[in-house]
Write a structure and sequence with these properties.
By secondary structure, this protein is mainly beta. A hairpin with a 2-residue loop joins strand 1 and strand 2.
C-alpha cells in the first residue's frame, strides 16, 4: 500500500518535504522484469494481503527512521501501537492508541506523546504542556499526533492493504532471512506508474509484514529511505475497550483546541 493513512488522516509531512526537492518527473521508463520471479512474488503478496485483511486487533513495538541523505534532515520516532476494531460510525476508522517518542529533527530534543481514537474522540496527550487535546475532528492531534502515526503499520487497518504491491510493475523475492525471530521473505517492489520502490520483510509463518523500507534517490543520485520496523507483534491480543479509552492524567487540562502545528519530521 502506497497511501500513508492512519486514524483517518494522511501523513503528508515527510512525503511533501521530499516531493518539494524532486525535479519534475517524466513518464517512467518501462520496468524490465523476470516473469517467473514476478509471479512467485505476487503469489506470496496475495497471501500477505489476505493475512493483513484478517487482522482486526493487534499490538506491536515500532520504530521509524530515515537513512542515507534523508537522515541529515528528518527526525525519527519509536513507540508502542495498539490497533482495535473498526468503528463504522466514525467512517471506518479503527480504535487506536499510540505511545511515541519523537525527535522531529536530528538535532531536536526527544518528546513523548500519546495519541489515539477511543471510538468517540481523537486525542493527543501532551506531557510538556500538560494538555489533552480531544475532539471528534481527527485534526485535533496537530502535527505531533501526525508525527506519532509514522510508526503505525497502516496496512493492518486498510481495506486493500497490498493491492499496490500485487499490481506493481515488478516484484521479486530477494532472499530469506531471520528477522525478530521469524524467517522472513525479503521482497523488492517497483510500484506502477513510477511511484517509487520499497523492500518488504514478510514472515513466512503468518505472512504479515515486519519491516518496510521505502527507497528514494535525490537529484544528485544519492540514496535514502524511510524504514518502518515492527517487533513483538501480537495478533488479536486479549484486552478490553478501556485499552483505548482517553484517561486525562491528574493535573492535565482537557481542551477541544487543536494541538499546535510544530513541524513535521523533516
Amino acid at each position: 500500500m502506497r497511501t500513508l493513512i492512519a486514524f483517518g488522516l494522511i501523513l503528508i509531512g515527510p512525503a511533501v518535504a521530499f516531493a518539494q526537492d524532486a525535479p519534475e518527473e517524466k513518464a517512467p521508463p518501462k520496468v524490465q522484469r523476470d516473469e517467473a520471479k514476478h509471479q512467485e512474488a505476487v503469489e506470496l503478496l496475495k497471501k500477505v494481503d489476505a493475512a493483513a485483511k484478517a487482522v482486526e486487533t493487534c499490538r506491536y513495538d515500532s520504530t521509524w527512521k530515515p537513512t542515507g541523505f534523508l537522515a541529515e534532515r528528518m527526525g525519527s520516532a519509536s513507540g508502542r501501537v495498539l490497533l482495535g476494531a473498526k468503528v463504522e460510525s466514525a467512517g471506518g476508522a479503527h480504535k487506536m492508541k499510540v505511545t511515541t517518542k519523537i525527535q522531529r529533527t536530528p538535532s531536536a530534543e526527544v518528546a513523548e506523546y500519546t495519541t489515539g481514537f477511543d471510538g468517540d474522540e481523537f486525542y493527543l496527550i501532551d506531557p510538556t504542556s500538560q494538555k489533552v487535546h480531544a475532539d471528534i475532528d481527527p485534526g485535533v492531534v496537530g502535527t505531533d499526533g501526525q508525527n506519532a502515526r509514522a510508526i503505525v503499520m497502516q496496512e493492518f487497518a486498510h481495506p486493500t492493504p497490498f493491492s499496490d504491491e500485487i499490481n506493481s510493475d515488478s516484484a521479486e523475492i530477494l532472499r530469506k532471512e531471520m528477522f525478530d525471530g521469524q524467517e522472513c521473505s525479503v521482497v523488492h517492489v517497483v510500484y506502477a506508474g513510477g511511484r517509487g520502490e520499497a523492500v518488504w520483510w514478510f514472515s513466512n509463518k503468518d505472512y504479515l509484514p515486519r519491516q518496510r523500507e521505502q527507497l528514494f534517490k535525490n537529484p544528485d543520485g544519492e540514496r535514502g529511505s524511510w524504514v518502518l520496523t515492527i517487533t513483538n507483534l501480537e495478533i488479536a491480543p486479549e484486552w478490553q475497550d478501556k485499552a483505548f479509552a482517553l484517561v486525562v492524567p491528574e493535573g492535565y487540562k482537557k481542551t477541544d483546541e487543536f494541538a499546535p502545528q510544530r513541524g513535521m519530521m523533516n
